[in-house]
Specification:
The protein is an alpha+beta fold. It has two domains: about 75-290, Thrombin, subunit H; about 295-390, Pdz3 Domain (Roll). The protein is about 25% helix and about 35% strand. The protein has helices spanning about 1-60, 75-85, 130-135, 275-290, 305-315, 330-335, 355-360; strands at about 90-100, 110-125, 125-130, 140-145, 150-160, 165-170, 190-195, 205-220, 225-235, 245-250, 255-260, 270-275, 295, 300-305, 320-325, 340-345, 350, 370-375, 380-385, 390. The protein has a six-stranded antiparallel barrel. The radius of gyration is 32 Å and the shape is globular.
Length: about 400
């Protein structure tokens, strides 16, 4: 009997020890789990906070910090930046947009939209070059200079077709940029871009001229197609906010106005485009003098003739601009241009594509008479056309 009681007591002691071990192990597991979850949660919220801060800094709030560079070496980009940055400005705009009200039929609600872009001082008496899409529809324009001065600006004139606008500030003796030329540029040349990408003022990036004479067709804010010709392509990093900023050569001279990028992510992917400075200045001078830019116009739609198209259609030439449509009442219509005509020359200059035709047309003025070399039904003829003003025709 005593042995049985001892045996029972021994088993009870063993059971109590087992439960203690299990309880302690469970508590340790819970504590470890809580510690791991705390570390993971801390890392997540820290990352989220950092991302939120970056988002606010890059998109919602202008970057007010000034980055001071140390000019201790002979890097040409440093010298270019040092020379040109004081002539580049940041442009912040406010626009009122109107949207249909979901709750009240036939009523539009107003929404204030803020944006940021860049500009280039090209005259010391307060004239600034920028893009039309930066300031289009702006109710307020605030221009920030390199020394921190902020001045309200006013749009003197803007042109949708070229995407160029001129902003005027009431400020004298400004440091104007040294203007170069977009003639005789070469692929591979060093270039530097300066602007305010995502609100980070006076950001400097560098690269090369990747290609010249690019043609890009895109939609304006109104939804109408716009064709840009003679664009400078560069791999210098350009992002939203760089629009209207300077593209500079190795001498620190402005050779282009940064205007758009080709991207599938809406951010930098190595393909940016700038409007040649010769074109931008020509438009700016017209805007200052006349408040309006005239764009010579033929009034046709068409395609470039290629060897493949020539073979498929049995054409006598393998290059040129083939007319697809002639818009009614336009200069081309009045001159007798027909669908199917192939334009092979423009005032004696060879036309190899539709791009060539657009470029040559824009070199002339509204009201000029030009001679088109046209291939019609296998025979070459000459057609005289008086160029019209594009804005006079609405389709």
């Amino acid at each position: 009997m005593a042995e049985a009681e001892n045996l029972v007591m021994s088993e009870v002691k063993k059971d109590n020890s087992s439960w203690k071990i299990i309880l302690i192990s469970s508590l340790i597991s819970v504590l470890v789990t809580l510690l791991v979850l705390t570390v993971v949660a801390f890392g997540f919220f820290r990352t989220f906070y950092q991302r939120s801060s970056l988002f606010d800094l890059g998109r919602s709030k202008p970057c007010e910090q000034r980055i001071v560079l140390s000019y201790k070496d002979s890097n040409p980009v440093v010298a270019i930046a040092q020379k040109a940055r004081p002539a580049v400005v940041s442009i912040r705009v406010e626009k009122l947009t109107y949207h249909p009200d979901f709750f009240i039929p036939f009523f539009e609600s107003k929404r204030l939209v803020r944006g940021v872009g860049s500009g280039v001082v090209f005259r010391s008496d307060g004239y600034i070059l920028t893009n039309n899409h930066v300031v289009s529809g702006a109710t307020n324009i605030l221009v920030t200079f390199y020394n921190g001065d902020m001045v309200w600006g006013k749009v003197i004139g803007s042109d949708v077709e070229s995407d160029i606008a001129v902003v005027k500030v009431e400020k004298e003796n400004l440091q104007a940029a040294e203007i170069g030329t977009s003639k005789n540029l070469k692929v591979g040349e060093l270039v530097v871009a300066i602007g305010s990408p995502f609100g980070f003022d006076y950001t400097v990036t560098s690269g090369v001229i990747s290609a010249l004479n690019r043609t890009i067709t895109t939609d304006s804010e109104e939804g109408t197609p716009i064709t840009f010709v003679n664009l400078i392509q560069t791999d210098a990093a350009i992002n939203p906010g760089n629009s209207g900023g300077a593209l500079l050569n190795a001498k620190g001279q402005v050779i282009g106005i940064n205007t758009l990028i080709y991207s599938r992510t809406e951010g930098y992917q190595g393909i940016g485009f700038a409007i040649p400075i010769d074109t931008a200045l020509d438009v700016a001078r017209q805007l200052i003098a006349k408040k309006k830019v005239q764009h010579p116009f033929l009034g046709i739609n068409g395609v470039s003739v290629t060897p493949e198209i020539a073979q498929e259609k049995g054409l006598a030439v393998s290059k040129g601009a083939m007319v697809g449509d002639v818009l009614p009442g336009t200069p081309a219509d009045k001159a007798g241009i027909r669908p199917g005509d192939i334009i092979i020359s423009f005032d004696g200059k060879e036309i190899s594509s539709m791009d060539d035709l657009i470029i040559e047309t824009r070199k002339h003025k509204v009201g000029e008479k030009v001679k088109l070399g046209v291939l019609r039904e296998g025979k070459e003829i000459t057609v005289e056309v008086i160029l019209g003003e594009k804005t006079e025709y609405r389709f």
